Amino acid sequence: MSELSMEAVEKYPDPIQPEVILMLDIESLALGPRPVITQAALLGYDLNEDELLDPRHVQYYPVDPQQMIIPPRRIMATTIAWWMKQSDEARENFELSTSNDFQDLPALGRNLISVFNQLTNNGTRPYELYARGPQFDVVAIETLLEELNLEKPWKHDSVRDLRTLLALAGVNPKNVVKPAGFIPHIAYWDARWQINQYLHAKRVLSGR
What we know:
Elements: H1 3-11, E1 20-28, E2 37-46, E3 51-52, E4 57-60, H2 63-68, H3 77-83, H4 88-92, H5 104-120, E5 127-131, H6 137-147, E6 159-161, H7 162-169, H8 187-206
Parallel strand pairs: 1-5, 5-6
Antiparallel strand pairs: 1-2, 2-3, 2-4
């Protein structure tokens, strides 16, 4: 290794291991960076104590106000058709996103930021933010926060892709135990199961 490359290595800081992982999941009415979001869940898990943390952002987002943003956030007919094929329990949750109160949106955004700050001690506790995958869930939340004149609370380099972690560990998520009471395509349950997937993949990788 050359002297120059050795110098570069010495200046590169060792990665800080997270104490908390955050799992973000949304449900939406479209693909892409600006979908109408119907549900969002942000859960925290303490890796030192091996336990799920409070508080939690588990909220239904009103649809109509997102259509009042200029330009309106996106709804896709193909996504609606996909939703109509899901379980009764999942489809029934649409009724919880029918509020037309525009003030709900910034309040929900502020709550998400508040929960993040409480889980990470205002970002000072080492954390990583996971989603499956972040180029959709995280980006969709970030664009909505921006449109509500709110700043995303997490650092850009804290975002991680759960799919990548699972692939590195050789883990098929279908083989990971679901939490009791699990209902697919409800943001809380998907985020909760994804925490199980993270923990399973980490155990596999640590055993190699």
